[in-house]
Design a protein that fits this description.
54% of the residues lie in helices and 5% in strands. It is mostly helical.
């Protein structure tokens, strides 16, 4: 994933796999439902800290991968 726009469909998919509504994800991530809507729709100007909170609420952590070598850095 290279952009926030690419994250939107993934976040929607992960949320739906858990059977959560947008409201439930927002509550678990301590963000507003509007933020979840913006994120799932690929709005590029979302706050990074909230972006990370959403992935954490879904039970995921993000790693950084070198696009040339494939090496993963924490």
């Amino acid at each position: 994933m290279r952009t926030v726009r690419e994250a939107g469909p993934l976040i929607r998919e992960l949320r739906e796999e858990r059977g959560w509504s947008q409201v439930e994800l927002a509550q678990r991530a301590n963000v507003s439902r509007t933020f979840v809507i913006d994120l799932e729709s690929g709005k590029a100007t979302v706050e990074t800290s909230k972006f990370m909170d959403v992935f954490q609420a879904l039970g995921f952590e993000l790693a950084i991968r070198d696009s040339e070598t494939g090496d993963v850095r924490w």
